[in-house]
Write a sequence for this structure.
């Protein structure tokens, strides 16, 4: 059976290279693909029921050619991509950044507690709750311009408190 496989391979080798070359875009790579196909084909168990060995060999060449083309396309899209990914900084905060952010949140929370109730509610609804200025104005039964001023005052107050604490 091994001699039959070798004879089949030798009989179709040139045609297999011709078949793979347009897929991989290079005759030298096509030669490599056909060689790899032979290795896979020759390793098949002699008990395997392959009804059309030539077709099977062509299928191996086609699949390996497409794999080669995908690898080449990926490498062209981002040469050295793995190295670049390894050098990217982590997206998670450092322990120092986490503590700083927690301190800032605590300072803002303290600043909000010192605001008049209507100003704090306008700020919380608009900036934290996602309500529009119009919705906040309707809820508080005041004008949109007043809500805008209240939110602005709350922001300025929080910034002043934050700068004072840091």
């Amino acid at each position: 059976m091994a001699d039959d496989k070798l004879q089949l391979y030798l009989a179709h080798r040139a045609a297999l290279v011709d078949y793979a070359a347009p897929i991989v875009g290079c005759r030298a790579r096509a030669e490599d693909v056909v060689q790899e196909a032979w290795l896979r084909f020759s390793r098949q168990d002699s008990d395997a029921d392959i009804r059309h060995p030539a077709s099977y060999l062509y299928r191996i060449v086609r699949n390996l050619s497409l794999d080669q083309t995908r690898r080449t396309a990926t490498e062209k899209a981002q040469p050295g991509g793995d190295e670049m990914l390894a050098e990217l900084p982590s997206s998670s905060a450092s322990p120092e950044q986490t503590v700083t952010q927690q301190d800032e949140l605590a300072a803002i929370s303290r600043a909000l507690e010192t605001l008049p109730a209507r100003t704090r509610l306008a700020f919380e609804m608009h900036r934290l709750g996602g309500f529009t200025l119009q919705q906040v104005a309707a809820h508080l039964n005041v004008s949109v311009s007043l809500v805008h001023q209240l939110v602005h005052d709350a922001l300025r107050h929080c910034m002043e408190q934050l700068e004072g604490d840091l």
